[in-house]
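#struct-pred

JT: dropping the chains for the assembly here, can someone run the whole complex?
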Amino acid sequence: MSGNIRGFGYLESLPPVTFRRLYQQPATALAIFRRMLPNLAKTIVTTLLYNESPVALGDLEALVRPESYREREDAFSKLRRLHIITENNLDVSLDPVFKKNFRLALTGGGDHHSFGVPCNTEDKKKITVQFLDDYATRQFEAILHYMVGTHNEVKPSKGVITLLTKGGLMERYGAGSVATITKNGFSFLLQDGNPQIWALLIQYLEMSEELGMEQTDVLHFLLMLGSLELGQAYSVNTLTETQKLMLADLRDYGVVYQRKSTSDRFYPTRLATTLTSESGGLRSASASMSSAMVKDAEEGKGFIILETNYRVYAYTDSPLQIAVLNLFVKLSTRYPNLVSGRISRRSIQEAIKMGITADQVIDYLSAHAHPQMRKSLVTLPPTVVDQIRLWQIEGERMRTTTGFLFKDFHSTQEFEEVAKYAEELGVLKWKKPSKRCMFVTRHEQIADWLKRRASAQQQQQQSKKVAT
Amino acid sequence: MPRAVKGVLIECDPSIKAIILKIDKDSGHGYIVEDLDDETLVVKEPKLPELKLRLEKILERTQMLERDEESDPENPG
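RK: done, full complex below.
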């Protein structure tokens, strides 16, 4: 993936202090548990949750089959990075703040209002789920349309445009000129709905800091939205000042709906309620969505036919879809309900120059493949898929990987052990035993492991001394 | 304890690597962290875009990329 667009994963890099403050809200603790932890880590958390005393690390590790070693290390590393578990020697316990509030989230109680306060009074005009879906679609599509420069009756607000330019998705050359889409913007367009909305919200989070808004307040609100109920009105009165300010911006993105800015209630839309759910948001739920954000494999709403002769037929009249296709297809003919064109070396290499990867193109094509294409064993013609990949390699003169070089190992044995561990974790990229050098994509787990190994060795030596 | 250095691993042809070595030498060794072997080296991460740009420029001068014919058999001309 293009590394320039930060998505939900960005939250992992927040400082420990922020996490401690985040866990003060039950809704946030639940959201992080739900969205950020792999299943195995969830099992570990639930095991620890109602244990008053710490549990030995060995006992926890014994829960996992030895062959799932890699998943186990992954789960523990995630829990450590999110500061959910605290370790004292070899005893593990949950972070007390997290523990208290996660329990509250599960069993209820307290007057923290962290799950929002529903409005009990009847709204004068009834707001239906359908209405909210339409509203969210209209607002969010307006942003996408604006990015590709198609005409649309709804124009995004000034705040949205500032967000897009600040986030590097669009660029303005000189004041007053029209903003144009950037490389990052193109890769953004090819993403699914949920990563898209998170990319915008993370950008918003960064901007809010510049505006002097409290970062944890903003995050609390964003993560709380994920646990609200669609179609239910919530009271504005219990929100903090920062959060009230946020409502105006979130309304622009289609994440919440308010009839008037002075209204004392707000409705979360599907974009909000699916923020922290595990599987994708709007795409499967709303059949009315006919845009690039919809991944509609199940409903058979795909519209693209790709032939073995590189010809592309797309049954669509949506300017947005056509604009997205135009990024990597040389379109030649347009009929009322169909556009046709061809994928060529040049069209793919131009897309690559704009920062789109071959995999993104292939993913997009297979996600939107016409039901007729799905009838065959392989959705896309393999020759075309291979050729698209080859065209990408052709333009690349070097392969680059960001990461860490480990060197200065004491012994070949130490080197081999670390290399084996790194390989099991799936982070080993390159190694050269003769130089005792290796390159890994992530170093935290290895550093951890080395430290624990060193202290274990020390203890061994000490006990040996005592024995003699 | 072994040491870890942050950087970008580059894997490329020996010919490309030779050019990178030259760029590094001409600029007073500002790019390369570690020269690993004929086809691999590690460079400083913030310097990567600059390195790519300079490499691109040198290659433009030395190589003539053939134009690909965009002919379509069914739509001649």
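JT: nice. The first strand of chain A starts at residue 55 and ends at 56. Chain A has a mean pLDDT of 82.
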